[in-house]
Write a structure and sequence with these properties.
The protein has 94 residues and is an all-alpha fold. Helices cover 62% and strands 0% of the residues. α2 packs antiparallel against α3 (41-74). The longest helix is centred in the middle third of the chain and has 34 residues, at 41-74.
Length: 94
């Protein structure tokens, strides 16, 4: 029985990481599952808990993506042909 519990706990860490879209699809399926009236309460609660965890991780990922987009949108544009300043890397010898 201990092995069965280990299998239930570890699948999240096993295998390749799922894409944002795959996790969002899983969240949608969990929502549909919870809305069914014939689902046992324990099963609904487990689906709800998983859904909350997924929603939180997806929200954090979206926030990171939004931050990256804001940085890119607010970054100063470099003009064509203009060399980037690399003062830190200059040895001072030209």
């Amino acid at each position: 029985m201990a092995k069965e519990k280990e299998k239930k706990i570890s699948p999240k860490s096993a295998g390749p990481a799922k894409s944002f879209e795959e996790r969002l699809e899983r969240l949608e399926k969990l929502g549909e599952k919870i809305r069914k009236s014939d689902i046992p309460l324990d099963e609904a609660l487990k689906a709800f808990e998983e859904g909350i965890r997924l929603a939180r991780t997806l929200e954090k990922e979206l926030e990171k993506t939004e931050s990256r987009i804001e940085l890119l949108m607010n970054a100063p544009e470099s003009k064509a042909g203009e060399e980037a300043e690399l003062g830190l890397f200059d040895s001072g010898e030209d």
